[in-house]
Inverse folding.
C-alpha cells in the first residue's frame, strides 16, 4: 500500500469516527417531570355537589371532558356573539398567531445547519502585475482577470451543539403555541367575566334606583309627619342621610358599567364609540349544572401556562448543551473548485482550473472564562426555569382547589341571600296588608320596600359571583382547548 493510500485510508477512518461521535449530544436530555402525586386538589375531599340555590345545584364530574367552547354552557346567544366578535378582531390573538409563525420559521431556519453550505462566486477585474514581488526581471503588465468558483462547506456536529440549538428552537415553538392557547383562554375568560359583571352592574343600578325612589318618598312623608308633630325631625334627617347614601352608590356603579362596556369593546377589537352588540343580561344566562373537572394527573398537560413554562425549561435545558459544545473542538469540511483566466472565452481552459479539499479543526484554548461561565449561566437558567415551572404547577392546583370550594361556598351564600330576600318579601307583603287594614303607616310600607330592594341587591351580587366563579373554574382547568380547535 502506497503512502498516499495510507493517508487517504487514515483520513477516511478519522472521518468515520467523527461521524460516529456526531450521534451523541452533550448536555442533559430533557424529560417531562412527573405531576404531583395527589388524587385531589384540596386538603379535604373535593366537593361533588354544591348546595341548591335558586333551584339549581352544580355537580362536579371528575375526569369528565372539558368542552373547548365551554362558554356555550351558559346558553346565551348574546355571549356567543361577543366571543365570535372578539375572536375575529382581537389584536392580541393576531399578535400571538404572528409570534407562533415567527417561532416556526425560526425553527425551519435552524434546520439549515444540518445541510452543507454551497456558495458560488464570479468576478471580473483589471489588474497591473509587476514582477518585483517575485524578484524577477520582467516588465510590468496590465491584464484582465475573470474568475468563476464554487465552494462547499459542512460543519460536523460532533458534540451535538447544533442539534441542541435546534431542540431549543423547537421548544420555543412549543412556548409560542402554548401562549397562543393562553391568549385565547384569557380572552374568553375576560369576555365572559366582564359580560357578567356588566349585567350585574346594570341590575344593581336598577335596584338601587328603586331604593332611591322609595327613600325619596319616605323623606317626603316623614317631612309631612314631622310638620304635624307625629315624628321627630331627627327621623327626617336620618331618612335624608339614607337617601343621600343610596344616591351616592349610583354614580360608582354607572362608572363601573361604563368601564365594563368599554373593556368589552376593547377585547372585541373595536373602539367604545363603534361598539354595537347588545348587552348580556343576567336573565340571559343559565348556570351550568354539570361541571367537568380534570384529574389532577392531567392538569399539568392541559393548562397552557404550564405547558409554556415547561417548554421554557426545555429550551433552557437545550442551552446547556449548546454552551457545553462551544467549549469543545469543532471540525468542518470544505472544498472548492474554480477557474480563472484573462479572457471569458478561455475561462474554462484546463490550465486555469483550481480546486481544494480539506478539513479544519479548531478548539478554544483560553477565552478568559467566557465559555465556562456561559455554561454555568445556562445551568442556572435551567434551574430557574424548572423552579418557576414547579411554582406554576403549585399555583395551578391551588387555583382549581379554590374554584371548587368557591363554587360550593357561592351556592351556600346565594342560598342565604335567597332566604333573606324571601323573608324581606314576606315582610313587605305583611306590612302592605297591615297598611291596607289601617294598622301601619305608609312610612312602614316604604321601609319594608327598602329592605326588600336591599336584599334583592345582595342576591344579584351573589348570583354574579356564582357565575364568575364558574368561569374561574374553567380558566383554572385550562379551558378545554385540547378538545377542539382555537376559535371554534
Amino acid at each position: 500500500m502506497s503512502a498516499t493510500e495510507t493517508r487517504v485510508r487514515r483520513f477516511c477512518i478519522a472521518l468515520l469516527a467523527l461521524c460516529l461521535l456526531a450521534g451523541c449530544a452533550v448536555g442533559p436530555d430533557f424529560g417531562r417531570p412527573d405531576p404531583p402525586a395527589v388524587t385531589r386538589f384540596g386538603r379535604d375531599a373535593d366537593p361533588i355537589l354544591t348546595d341548591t340555590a335558586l333551584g339549581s345545584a352544580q355537580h362536579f364530574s371528575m375526569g369528565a371532558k372539558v368542552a373547548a367552547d365551554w362558554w356555550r354552557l351558559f346558553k346565551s346567544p348574546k355571549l356567543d356573539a361577543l366571543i365570535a366578535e372578539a375572536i375575529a378582531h382581537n389584536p392580541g390573538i393576531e399578535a400571538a398567531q404572528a409570534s407562533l409563525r415567527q417561532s416556526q420559521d425560526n425553527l425551519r431556519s435552524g434546520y439549515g445547519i444540518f445541510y452543507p453550505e454551497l456558495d458560488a462566486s464570479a468576478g471580473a477585474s483589471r489588474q497591473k502585475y509587476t514582477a518585483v514581488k517575485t524578484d524577477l526581471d520582467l516588465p510590468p503588465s496590465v491584464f484582465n482577470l475573470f474568475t468563476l468558483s464554487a465552494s462547499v462547506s459542512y460543519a460536523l456536529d460532533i458534540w451535538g451543539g447544533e442539534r441542541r440549538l435546534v431542540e431549543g428552537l423547537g421548544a420555543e415553538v412549543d412556548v409560542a403555541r402554548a401562549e397562543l392557547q393562553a391568549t385565547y383562554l384569557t380572552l374568553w375568560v375576560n369576555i365572559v367575566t366582564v359580560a357578567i359583571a356588566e349585567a350585574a352592574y346594570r341590575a344593581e343600578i336598577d335596584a338601587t334606583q328603586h331604593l332611591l325612589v322609595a327613600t325619596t318618598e319616605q323623606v317626603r312623608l316623614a317631612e309631612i309627619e314631622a310638620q304635624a308633630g307625629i315624628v321627630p325631625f331627627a327621623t327626617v334627617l336620618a331618612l335624608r342621610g339614607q337617601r343621600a347614601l343610596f344616591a351616592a352608590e349610583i354614580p360608582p356603579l354607572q362608572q363601573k358599567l361604563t368601564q365594563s362596556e368599554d373593556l368589552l369593546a376593547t377585547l372585541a377589537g373595536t373602539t367604545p364609540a363603534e361598539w354595537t352588540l347588545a348587552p348580556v343580561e343576567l336573565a340571559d344566562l343559565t348556570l351550568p349544572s354539570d361541571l367537568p373537572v380534570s384529574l389532577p394527573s392531567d392538569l399539568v398537560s392541559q393548562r397552557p401556562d404550564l405547558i409554556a413554562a415547561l417548554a421554557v425549561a426545555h429550551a433552557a435545558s437545550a442551552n446547556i448543551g449548546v454552551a457545553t459544545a462551544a467549549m469543545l473542538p469543532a471540525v468542518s469540511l470544505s472544498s472548492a473548485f474554480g477557474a480563472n483566466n484573462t479572457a471569458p472565452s478561455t475561462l474554462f481552459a484546463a490550465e486555469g482550473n483550481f480546486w481544494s479539499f480539506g478539513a479544519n479543526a479548531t478548539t478554544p484554548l483560553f477565552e478568559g472564562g467566557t465559555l465556562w461561565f456561559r455554561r454555568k449561566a445556562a445551568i442556572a437558567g435551567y434551574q430557574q426555569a424548572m423552579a418557576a415551572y414547579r411554582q406554576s404547577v403549585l399555583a395551578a392546583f391551588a387555583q382549581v382547589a379554590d374554584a371548587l370550594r368557591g363554587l360550593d361556598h357561592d351556592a351556600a351564600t346565594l342560598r342565604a341571600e335567597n332566604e333573606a330576600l324571601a323573608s324581606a318579601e314576606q315582610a313587605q307583603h305583611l306590612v302592605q296588608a297591615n297598611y291596607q287594614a289601617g294598622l301601619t303607616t305608609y312610612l312602614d310600607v316604604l321601609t319594608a320596600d327598602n329592605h326588600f330592594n336591599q336584599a334583592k341587591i345582595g342576591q344579584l351580587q351573589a348570583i354574579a359571583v356564582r357565575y364568575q366563579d364558574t368561569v374561574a373554574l374553567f380558566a383554572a382547568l385550562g379551558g378545554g382547548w385540547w378538545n377542539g380547535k382555537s376559535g371554534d
Observations:
- Strands lie at 59-62, 117-129, 141-156, 290-293, 330-341, 353-362.
- The longest strand covers residues 141-156.
- The chain has nine helices and six strands.
- The chain has a mean pLDDT of 88.
